From TrEMBL:
<comment type="similarity">
    <text>Belongs to the G-protein coupled receptor 4 family.</text>
</comment>
<dbReference type="GO" id="GO:0004934">
    <property type="term" value="F:mating-type alpha-factor pheromone receptor activity"/>
</dbReference>
<feature type="transmembrane region" description="Helical">
    <location>
        <begin position="205"/>
        <end position="227"/>
    </location>
</feature>
<dbReference type="InterPro" id="IPR001499">
    <property type="entry name" value="GPCR_STE3"/>
</dbReference>
<keyword id="KW-0807">Transducer</keyword>
<feature type="transmembrane region" description="Helical">
    <location>
        <begin position="36"/>
        <end position="54"/>
    </location>
</feature>
<dbReference type="Pfam" id="PF02076">
    <property type="entry name" value="STE3"/>
</dbReference>
<keyword id="KW-0589">Pheromone response</keyword>
<dbReference type="GO" id="GO:0000750">
    <property type="term" value="P:pheromone-dependent signal transduction involved in conjugation with cellular fusion"/>
</dbReference>
<dbReference type="GO" id="GO:0005886">
    <property type="term" value="C:plasma membrane"/>
</dbReference>
<keyword id="KW-0472">Membrane</keyword>
<feature type="transmembrane region" description="Helical">
    <location>
        <begin position="271"/>
        <end position="290"/>
    </location>
</feature>
<keyword id="KW-0812">Transmembrane</keyword>
<feature type="transmembrane region" description="Helical">
    <location>
        <begin position="113"/>
        <end position="134"/>
    </location>
</feature>
<keyword id="KW-0297">G-protein coupled receptor</keyword>
<keyword id="KW-0675">Receptor</keyword>
<protein>
    <submittedName>
        <fullName>Pheromone receptor CPRa1p</fullName>
    </submittedName>
</protein>
């Protein structure tokens, strides 16, 4: 079946995976753990989606079962990892907006990083464990999409898998609102803290706020919509873990003709895949052109510029012999300003005395003699001769 998204989607996915990871080094140096987690998870998600879109463009063949095992687990983890990273960002922004002192100790920074890791990496790991309980069979393969996890739709699946993206999004929204309120109430102390912070500027603060808000507006409605779709679908009774995992090695393969015939499936696939790529590009738009980014780009390009100049040195201009022109014009060499020589003739003892000066020394000499000076000079010379 013709895929209208190919090759645009895989190309944009791979570009997004590369772009979103570019600002990682300087955010890592600034201890921005929530931002680093957002970059890492988004890059992994875009890379995974791009590879799947290329390999399974027009087929549902199980080319790489091990890859599909990994890929389907990445999709499960990312479904909560990106909202959890946004929660880390909003939580840190709230801490900054309500901070009492402008200085932060190294121990406090380390503690904040550990909390962010527990949220941004611990929650996705727990989600993978919970997912395995309701994972009815190994995975599915959808034409034009690739590998995808399968959740056995039982009442147990709702608290274990379905609700967590929505819960995390709502917690992030609460932190976002409290951050804005705290900023409005304590604007003076907030400005004092930012002026004393070397790793956070007011521009970066509001870019982080805009990023977290944009992610919140994208993922939370999708999580709510997906939850409502699963609630309206057929819900199987939960019997046991063994019953859920009966025939676990099965792999269901879905041609595009079949899954696109279900409008709800098409909406979910398109929204979740494209919004992941959108998150990558919007992050690079916020942080890829900032002042610190341009400084780091220049620093990274400096060795290559030096290497280029060493391999292709600039050739010096070849020197030509002096070329004289009559009437006092003399061209010293190529690439220099011509020097003009003027001759001043003064009558002394009925003889002509010649004086030469160049215009390159004009700044060091007094103005040329006037006619009145020449007459006085001639009279004084005659008087001295008479004496």
């Amino acid at each position: 079946m013709l895929n209208p998204e190919y090759p645009a989607f895989p190309i944009l996915s791979l570009i997004g995976a590369a772009l979103v990871i570019i600002p990682l080094p300087w955010h890592f140096q600034a201890w921005n753990s929530g931002t680093c987690l957002f970059m890492i998870w988004t890059s992994i998600a875009c890379l995974n989606l791009g590879v799947n879109a290329i390999v399974w463009n027009n087929n549902v063949i199980n080319h790489a079962p091990v890859w599909c095992d990994i890929s389907s687990r990445i999709i499960v983890a990312v479904s909560v990892a990106i909202p959890a990273s946004s929660l880390c960002i909003n939580r840190r922004l709230y801490k900054i907006a309500t901070m009492r002192t402008a200085s932060i100790s190294r121990a406090e920074k380390r503690q904040a990083v550990l909390v962010d890791l527990a949220i941004g990496a611990g929650i996705p790991f727990l989600q993978l464990i919970a997912f395995h309980i309701v994972n009815g069979h190994r995975f599915d393969i959808f034409e034009q999409v690739g590998c995808y996890p399968y959740v056995y739709n039982t009442p147990v699946a709702f608290p274990l898998v379905y609700v967590w993206p929505l819960v995390i999004g709502l917690c992030s929204a609460v932190y976002c609102v409290m951050s804005l309120r705290a900023f409005a109430l304590r604007r003076a102390q907030f400005s004092e803290f930012l002026s004393a912070s070397a790793s956070l500027t007011i521009g970066r603060y509001f870019r982080l706020m805009a990023l977290a808000t944009a992610e919140l507006m994208c993922t939370t409605p999708i999580a709510a919509y997906g939850l409502s779709l699963n609630a309206r679908s057929q819900i199987h009774p939960w019997i046991s873990y063994a019953d859920t995992h009966f025939g676990y090695s099965r792999v269901d393969q879905w041609p595009a003709v079949l899954w696109k015939a279900q409008p709800n499936s098409t909406i979910i696939f398109d929204l979740t895949r494209w919004l992941t790529v959108f998150c990558a590009f919007i992050f690079f738009g916020f942080f890829g052109f900032a002042d610190e980014a341009r400084r780091n780009y220049a620093k990274a390009a400096s060795p290559f510029i030096k290497l280029y100049r060493r391999v292709f040195p600039q050739r010096e201009t070849e020197q030509l012999p002096p070329y004289s022109v009559s009437k006092g014009f003399q061209l010293q060499s190529v690439g220099t300003i011509p020097v003009f020589t003027r001759r001043l003739s003064i009558e002394k003892d009925h003889k002509v005395v010649s004086m030469s000066y160049s215009e390159s020394d004009v700044s060091d000499l007094s103005p040329p003699p006037t006619a009145d000076f020449v007459r006085r000079y001639s009279l004084s010379s005659h008087c001295e001769h008479a004496i």
